[in-house]
What we know:
It is built from 11 helices and 4 strands. It is an alpha/beta fold and 208 residues long.
Amino acid sequence: MIRHGVxxxxxxxxxxxxxxxxxxxxxxVELAAAHRPDVVLLDIRMPVCDGLAAIAPLLALDxxxxxxxxxxxxxxxxxxxxxxxxxxxxxxxxxxxxELISAVRSAAAGDAVLSPGVTGAxxxxxxxxxxxxxxxxxxxxxxxxxxxxxxxxxLAMLGEGLSNQDIAGRLGIGIGTVKTHxxxxxxxxxxxxxxxxxxxxxxxxxxx
Length: 208
């Protein structure tokens, strides 16, 4: 029923084609290898092979799809694992149709998909778990000190889980400009991903 609903929502969205539907993680990998989609939407909990186990083989494809995980509130531990495995982000199952469509479009555009409903809890868990990229506060402060004022503003919004489009709207600038700022932030702070940058924003107090 959930897959049917997701398919109906996405198939009527402009610019999105649903090329396949899988019943479990193993089938998802097989269908992704056959159809080479830009985005794969995975449930964390699935039979045979769950979504977490499917991430690595999906990302081993060439070209690799962007993987977005569906989750429920309170599933932070699995979300953290998914992000560390290389998932592009996560979306709550009770989000509305527009949020689902936006998440797929954002992932296809190379954006991170971090549902605001659980971002704070996930960030907290990752920080308390001693995430090495931001484990040292002094080092984190030094990295943020390399940024311009505008880049710090963008970093704070990454910490809130905002997409490039949301950041552009809030700051009144173009999406291309936001992408440039995000790239500079990742480079200057040594962050491997937007998620690590978001962690940095929380560690240094730019986001809460």
